[in-house]
From TrEMBL:
Keyword Hydrolase: yes
Protein name (record): Cysteine hydrolase
Domain (Isochorismatase-like) ranges: 13-175
Signal peptide start-end: none
Record bears the keyword Hydrolase: yes
Highest taxon of source: Bacteria
Cross-referenced Pfam families: Isochorismatase
Coiled-coil residue windows: none
The entry's keywords: Hydrolase
GO molecular function: hydrolase activity
């Protein structure tokens, strides 16, 4: 279903663009350009016209890895030896502007260890329109938290990505276990047999 930028939900919504950052793009795409960035920039431009909040939480363990997890954290601890994720620097070319809100997130969920929830509630936000990389990481962790916190979660599927396409598709097929309403920015191509 295409995202509706004029829907009534917009009045209490914020766009949350998660982990669109330099290290993530370097790991997943190397020097190759990704159409994902162009699609997300299209989403950002259209969202700005609504006048509603736009937030960019990115993964950051700190310059000296002072926020690094213990080895028991299987999702994050393998990245420590790579030298990545010392900062949450956005990927070059992301359509950011002065006044945009940025968060340094020490774990996969953008809510863990940040003021994001409090900042959203202060702004009267009850609906989250979300996009992020990767679907099985930040998206799954953050959607689960947001749903438990009673947010109306709407995910933009064509602005989310995971290197495991099967897992990505399964999560969207199930609506993340019924937690989200899945939308697209662009029409999906019709498949005929």
């Amino acid at each position: 279903m295409l995202i509706d930028f004029q829907g009534r939900y917009i009045e209490k919504a914020a766009l949350v663009v998660m982990h669109y950052q330099a290290d993530v793009f370097a790991i997943l795409f190397g020097e190759q350009p990704s159409p994902l960035l162009d699609r997300c920039n299209g989403l950002i431009r259209r969202w700005r016209a609504t006048g509603r909040p736009l937030l960019f939480p990115n993964f950051s363990l700190g310059e000296a890895y002072e926020h690094a997890p213990p080895p028991s954290n299987r999702q994050i601890s393998p990245y420590i030896s790579s030298g990545h994720f010392r900062t949450g620097r956005p990927v070059a070319g992301l359509a950011i502007e002065p006044g945009d809100l940025f968060y340094a997130c020490p774990r996969a969920s953008v809510f863990h260890g940040t003021s994001l929830d409090a900042d959203l509630r202060t702004r009267g936000v009850s609906t989250l329109v979300m996009a992020g990389i990767s679907t099985t990481g930040v998206v799954l962790s953050s959607v689960t938290w947001a749903s438990d916190a009673d947010y109306d979660v709407r995910l933009i599927e064509d602005c989310c990505y995971d290197p495991d396409q099967e897992a990505h598709d399964a999560l969207f097929r199930s609506g993340f276990g019924g937690r989200v309403q899945a939308h697209t920015l662009q029409e999906k191509p019709c498949l005929t047999m």
